[in-house]
Amino acid sequence: MHARLNLKGCVAAALAVAAVVPALADERRAAVPLLPQYRSECAACHIAYPPGMLPAASWQRLMANLPQHFGTDASLDAATVQSISHWLQANAGTYKRVREEPPQDRITRSAWFQRKHDDVSPATWKLPAVKSPANCAACHTTADQGVFDEHRVRIPR
């Protein structure tokens, strides 16, 4: 009888781990070390968003449309585009939370982003120190390191 209980317990534990591992793997992907070219080019204007925050198809469209990147010309030479694109594709989000392509390929419009920030008031987004949901570093104190731990959030006043 103990052998069956232990076996059942082991099977249950294995199933629980199997259900969590893909989520953990994707969370680790969000903290992938940034490609130096990506950091220097993209973080010149905004936070260097971790590649795991968008699916590959969204990154592909964003990189193909750099001359009209959210109202700004973010054009790069072909070699840099190719290098950054390959890195983004290799590290794009793959778990279910980021597999769905968000409207206009905006991280802030993704279902997982909206769910994570549903308790943030509209007034908070309008604070001078925040300005918009895209300004992760305003509240996430370790966003520049690709870490968005809820316990390190500090809402500006």
TrEMBL record:
| Keyword terms, alphabetized | Signal
Pfam families xrefs: DHC (PF09626)
Q: What is the lineage of its organism?
A: Bacteria, Pseudomonadati, Pseudomonadota, Betaproteobacteria, Burkholderiales
Residues making up the signal peptide according to the UniProt record:
1-25
**Name the UniProt record assigns to this protein:** Diheme cytochrome c
Q: Decide whether keyword Cytoplasm is in the record.
A: no
Source domain of life: Bacteria
Question: What organism is recorded for this protein?
Answer: Ramlibacter cellulosilyticus
Q: Which InterPro entries match?
A: Dihaem_cytochrome-c (IPR018588), Multihaem_cyt_sf (IPR036280)
Q: Which SUPFAM superfamilies match?
A: Multiheme cytochromes
